[in-house]
Amino acid sequence: MGKRSRKRPSRPPAPERRDTNGTQPAKKLSRSEAKDAAARAALVPLAEGERPRAVTVGAVLAGLFAVGNLIAYAAGIEINGERPQAGGVIAYSLLMGVAAWGMWRSKYWAVLGLQAILGILIVIFSLFLFEAENLKSGLICVAVIAPAGLLFFHLVKAMARIQMPDRRPSS
């Protein structure tokens, strides 16, 4: 008979480790939990009226896209030989305008919304990159993906600072 087929004797449960004052079990943090805790401790809440640089860049870009889209439509631009529908242009411009306003005021929902838009944009242009038929279209895709990904990355830390519940008084 092999070792695995025999039933092993049950061991008594190990005693719980207690912290120094003996009240609660001590919990050892994993490496990733320790890194997360250190990153959270290093975050500094935003001062009143402060806006992270990535949020400012996002707000300016969203505002430029909102206004630029309306200007292009008013100038009569055509896409694939057809003029886009006014409803879609107005809806997109309104969405980007609201995002720009919210980000300029450092609103969490606006930063999260822009990140969602950037994420969708990155996925779409990544799919376009697979279908790129020439170098020019491939470079255009990369020219959209790289800055969108960089802004997305920098907005993550900015969101953590915006989300912090208390604003510490400056001393």
Characterise this structure.
It contains five helices and no strands. The protein is flat. It has helices at 31-42, 53-74, 86-104, 108-130, 135-163. The mean pLDDT is 83. By secondary structure, it is mostly helical.
Q: Tell me the Rg in angstroms.
A: 26 Å
Q: Distance between termini?
A: 74 Å
Number of helices: 5
Q: Low-confidence parts lasting 5 or more residues at pLDDT below 50?
A: none
Count every beta strand, where a strand is a DSSP E run of 2 or more residues. 0
The dominant shape is: flat
Mean pLDDT: 83
Report the biggest beta sheet as strand number plus sense, adding barrel if it closes: none
Run of helices and strands: HHHHH
Q: In percent, how helical is the residue content?
A: 55-70%
Sheet/helix structural class:
mainly alpha
Percentage beta strand: under 5%
